[in-house]
Amino acid sequence: MKKKELFIIIYTITILLSVMYATQPLQPLLSKEFDVSIVKASSFTAVIMLFLAISPIFYGYILESVKIKTVLMIASSILLITNLILGFVNNYELFLTIRTIEAIVIPAILTGCMAILAKDKKNTKVNMSIYVAATVFGGLVGRVFSGFIAEEFGWRIVFFSLSLALLLGLYFIKSLNFDDDANLVKPKLQDITNILKDKRFVIIYLQMFIIFFVFAGLLNILPFRVKELDPNVSETQVGLLYLGYGMGILISLFIHKIVNFFKKELRAIMAGIVLFLVSTSLFISTNPILLFSLVFVFCIGMFTIHTLSTRIANSLKASQKALTSGMYLSFYYLGGAVGSIIPSIVYAELGWNFTIYMFLVLLAFAFLFVFLNRNKFEAFN
Question: Where in the cell is it found (predicted)?
Answer without folding.
Answer: Cell membrane
